[in-house]
Amino acid sequence: MTDxxxxxxxxxALVALPLGGYQLFRRTKGDARHVLVGRVWVGLMLYxxxxxxxxxxxxxxxxxxxxxxxxxxxxxxxxxxxxxxxxDVRAHRGxxxxxxxxxxxxxxxxxxxxxxxxxxxxxxxxxxxxxxxLAVAATSWVVIRLGGLLADRAALPAAPLRPPD
Length: 165
What we know:
single chain, 77% helix, disordered C terminus
């Protein structure tokens, strides 16, 4: 169970990383693509934060500092959603940027420690690591492309329900 949880946790985090960066560095905000990619990103981030509570290998079965980051992430995501719904773009941007930077920090921590799963997998199974990297890139591309298709569709005028008389 823990191995499956770890794999899905890592997969969600690895897809959330480029999607969050795309959102932050993309020039256009608030369009259909931004909304779709943002919703997928928030869903991934929620899964990453919540699934982390089932992963306790770092601290002999106890919670660690990474679990504090998960709590901060849950609060930050909630604040970001709440603030954008209230029309406060600046607070939304700050909360979501903070969540993404926290994810970047967790990624660095996961890669920097040699005994952790990511570096061990990359060294022991380089072909599998490359395949995983390509899967992450493809998944991110599909989500971004779908967002673009929805943005293009939203830009089209709505078709009338019946032809005019």
